[in-house]
Specification:
single chain; 250 residues; mainly alpha; Helix Hairpins; three-stranded mixed β-sheet; 4 helices; binds zinc ion
Length: 250
């Protein structure tokens, strides 16, 4: 064996060793990537529920306002009724003071009109009771719904907070494991791998699968396959830039 060939074998061994370490990193990075995506998505689930919960609270406020409005209307009608009753009493009392029959008849007609007005108000008050009742019932029903939503939201929030805490811990564990292996990879290989990892959805190194890139599935030429087998340098997919390796060789 020539000295040159000897060196190449050593380099090849080193490169294989480096690729093995990159594959080890990839296993961890895939998990870290997945955990981090979950950390981003978890609060979004909660946000949707919060929007729904808030809209229920708006409905509750509307129903409270509605009840207040019909109660105020009812109070006004009752006041109106009281005034009409006072008017009738006053007119009744004045009857004995009237001097002519004409005045008397006119006052009687006036009293009749006042009484007719009064019975219209009484009718409206009766109907108003139904309105108050219906508004109160709707409000009570909505309160139950809001309470239910609040329970669900709080339970979900607790679940999300717990999940986020657990996943956060898992990320820390994986990152600490990763930091033990990463320094064993040549800095230029590592930065290349990490660049692809970042740009390609957490997948920086992929195995060759049946003459195709394991990442984007592009068919690999014979030339690329030969280059891979030589172990002279890192070989990447022309299409997706992911680093390639032959699983059988490791
Ligand atoms: Zn590819």
């Amino acid at each position: 064996m020539t000295r040159e060939k000897d060196l190449m074998t050593v380099t090849g061994q080193n490169l294989k060793d480096q690729i093995r370490k990159l594959v080890e990193l990839q296993v961890m990075d895939e998990e870290i990537f997945r955990f981090k995506r979950e950390l981003r998505e978890k609060p979004v689930e909660l946000e949707a529920l919060k929007v729904e919960f808030d809209s229920k609270k708006v409905t509750l406020k509307e129903l409270e306002d509605k009840l207040k409005t019909v109660q105020v209307q009812q109070k006004e009608l009752e006041l109106d009724l009281k005034m009409k009753e006072e008017g009738i009493a006053k007119a009744d009392a004045s009857l004995s003071l009237l001097k002519t029959n004409k005045e008397y008849q006119a006052r009687l007609l006036e009293i009749e009109n006042l009484k007719a007005d009064k019975s219209i108000v009484e009718e409206r008050i009766l109907l108003g009771y139904d309105d108050v009742d219906a508004a109160r019932k709707a409000l009570e029903a909505e309160k139950v719904t809001v309470l239910q939503y609040e329970k669900e939201f709080n339970a979900k929030k607790k679940q999300v907070d717990d999940d986020v805490a657990v996943i956060g811990d898992q990320v820390k564990v994986k990152e600490s494991q990763r930091s033990r292996i990463a320094p064993e990879v040549r800095p230029d290989y590592l930065s290349r791998y990490e660049r692809v990892l970042k740009n390609k959805d957490g997948l920086g190194i992929v195995k060759v699968d049946n003459h195709a890139c394991g990442g984007c599935h592009m068919h690999l030429t014979e030339q690329v396959m030969n280059e891979l087998k030589k172990y002279e340098q890192i070989i990447a997919c022309d299409q997706c830039a992911r680093i390639l390796y032959l699983a059988d060789d490791l």
